[in-house]
Design a protein that fits this description.
Layout (H helix, E strand, L loop, with lengths): L1 E7 L8 E7 L9 H11 L4 E8 L2 E7 L4 E2 L3 H13 L7 E7 L2 E8 L2 E5 L4 E5 L3 H10 L14 E4 L3 E6 L3 H6 L4 H11 L3 E6 L8 E7 L4 E4 L3 H13 L8 E6 L7 E8 L6 E6 L1 E8 L3
Parallel strand pairs: 2-3, 4-6, 11-12, 13-15
Antiparallel strand pairs: 1-2, 1-18, 3-4, 4-5, 6-7, 7-8, 8-17, 9-10, 10-11, 12-13, 13-14, 15-16, 16-17
Length: 291
């Protein structure tokens, strides 16, 4: 099987978030789940995407962490379609369908830039109980001062559920040091993938700086998360920070030395709310994997 290593949400090698990409041979079915998980663990990236070509510009993609399958992964999707473009499986300036466990999503590729639909946004809960707030910020090793943090954490999904957790400043964001075992337990209890921490303290032209933690899925920290930033865009809309047809520029991965640029768009018109997440990617390596 063909495999590639792709850095997503960046135009520079060793930037952004790397993903493993495995392209199934024509007509082949997916390997057994345990083989996919073991492959993801062997490649040692936060997610590995397995791509099955169904027809012209139509694909089914399954996503595996080193611990389990997940419904959707933004950076691995961006990486997958940049890889398909690199391999000549799709042409530039096209529209594709990606069948995922989170639904059938439209992907547009324009001038090498990939923009993907997120699953329909959903607000699951608001964390407003004082004891729950104290627990969350304590587990995250984060400063919590309600006089400085006016927004409340919310559980939101655009394919994967995460806790959107505001902090007051970029220095507070950088200082976060979660108790990973406690965060895994908290994530399991809330039935979320992890915590997406953010601050609105940002330079002109940037909406927010973020960090993402998902130790429940063997991902202590991730450099770029499309689904989480799609959810964050919906969070901004719910809190009146952006309007119904705005776009956002979000920076992630700086603490890891892998700065990533994630662009999002929201369309909250009369036909519901649609969110897109996009970015560039570069191919680092490719070869054959013997499965």
């Amino acid at each position: 099987m063909k495999f590639l290593i792709v850095d997503a949400f960046t135009e520079t090698l060793f930037g952004g978030n790397p993903a493993g990409i495995v392209l199934l041979p024509e007509g082949a079915d997916f390997p057994a789940d345990e083989v996919c998980v073991t492959t993801a663990a062997e490649l040692r990236y936060s997610e590995t995407a397995f791509i099955q070509e169904l027809g012209h510009n139509e694909f089914k993609i399954r996503y595996f962490t080193p611990a389990a399958e997940v419904d959707l992964c933004g950076h691995a999707t961006i990486g997958s379609f940049c890889a398909l473009l690199h391999l000549g499986k799709i042409s530039d300036n096209c529209t594709c369908i990606n069948h995922t466990l989170a639904g059938d999503l439209e992907i547009t590729v324009k001038d090498g830039f990939v923009m993907m639909d997120m699953a329909s946004p959903e607000e699951i809960a608001v964390i407003d109980d004082p004891a729950a707030l104290k627990e969350l910020y304590h587990v995250m090793g984060a400063a919590y001062d309600p006089a400085q943090i006016k927004l409340l954490p919310r559980l939101i999904s655009t394919g994967l559920p995460d806790i959107m957790m505001p902090v007051a400043s970029r220095s507070d964001l950088e200082a976060i040091e979660p108790d990973m075992k406690a965060l895994s337990d908290l994530s399991a209890r809330y039935k979320v993938t992890g915590v997406h921490a953010f601050t609105l303290e940002a330079e002109e032209g940037v909406t927010a700086h973020t960090r993402n933690f998902a130790p429940l899925y063997d991902i202590d920290e991730e450099a770029a998360t499309g689904t989480s930033n799609g959810a964050l865009t919906y969070y901004f809309y719910l809190n009146g920070l952006i309007q119904a047809k705005d776009s956002c520029k979000i920076i992630q991965g700086e603490k890891m030395g892998r700065p990533s640029v994630i662009l999002t768009e929201i369309d909250a018109g009369g036909n519901g709310c649609k969110i897109k997440v996009g970015g560039s990617a570069v191919v680092l390596a490719e070869g054959e994997i013997n499965l």
